[in-house]
Predict the structure.
Amino acid sequence: MINQATDVELTAMRHAAELAGTVAGRTSPNPPVAAVILAADGRLVGQGVTQRHGFEHAEVMALAAAGEDARGGTAVVTLEPCNHTGQTGPCTEALLAAGIARVVYAADDPNPVAAGGAERLRRAGVQVLGGVEVGLVSEAALGPWLHAVVHARPFVTWKFAATLDGRAAAADGSSRWISNAISRADVHRLRDRVDAVLVGSGTVLADDPQLTVRIEQPDGTQVLSEHQPLRVLLDRRHRVGKDALIFNDAAETLVLDTAVPRFACKALFDRGVRHLLLEGGPTLAGAFLEAGLIDEVVAYLAPKLLGAGSSVLEDAGITTMSDAVSLEVTQVSQLGSDLKVVGRPAFGEAGTGRGRDS
C-alpha cells in the first residue's frame, strides 16, 4: 500500500479543490465537493462535482464520466466519501461497484450521519489515504461547510465597504459609491459563492438594495446570475414595505422577525444555509461581532476621507483596547484604487471569546 500521496494524486487534489469552487453556494445543505478519477495508469479519466441537494454527489458524477476506466483506478475526493443513504445512495457503494482500488481524500466528514466512509472502504479491501492537502481544501470552497457542520450554524462572512477613516456613509447618509466598480464586481462574485445574504431593516430603508448576483456584460449592462442566494431580512418591527427591491422576483426572500443573531443563525442553519454573507449596517455587524458570530471579514477600503458620518461598526460591546478583536489577515489585494483585506477574527486568547462557539 502506498501510504502517501503521489505527485499525480497531489495534482489531482489541487485540481479538485479548484473544481469544487465552481459549485460553492449551490449544494447546501450538502457540501461543495469535487472528485477526480485516475485510471490505473494515472490518466485523468473522469471528474465531477456535487449537484444541488437531492441529486448526485461528486463521486457518482466522476465515476459516470470515467466509465470502465475507473476499474482498478484511484478516486481523489475533497471530502471523505459518504457512507449513508439519504436522498441519494452511499458514495462508498458507488466506488466499490465501479471497482475503484484506491481512494485519496482531503477532509474527514464531521457529520456523524455520513461519516465512516473511509472505514467502510478499507473493510472492503480498498486502499484509503486521508488528510491529503486538507489545509488547501479547508481554506477553499469546503471550509465554510465544515465549520457550519461542526458548530451547527452558518459560517458568517461580514462584508463592508469603507473610507480609509472607517466611514460607511457620509454625514448626510449618502453611501453610493464608496468603493469602485472593480470592488463592486468582486462583491457580486462573493455573493455568488454563498447560500444567503443577510441585512437588517435599517439597511433596506436607507439603501433599498436588491442583494442579487449580477454579471456585467461587455456593453456595461448587468444581467442576473443563474444562481441567486437566499435574501434574508431581519425586521423585528416589520418596518420594510413590500415595495422594497429586496422583495422583487429576482430571488427568494426570507423575513425573520428577530433582532437576535443567534436565533437568526439557528433558523438559517435549520433551513440548510451553511455560508452566510452579512451585509448589514454597523449596528447589526456589532451585534454579530459581540455574539462571536463573525468568522471572516472582507473589507473593501477606498482611498477617501469623510471625517464624519456613520462608522462601519458600532455597539460591539468593546470598551477598551484590551478587548479589541484581532484579525489574522489572510489576503490583501488591490482592486483598482481600492484595497481588499480579508481576515479571520480571533476571539480571545484561546480563540473563544464572549458568545463564541466552543
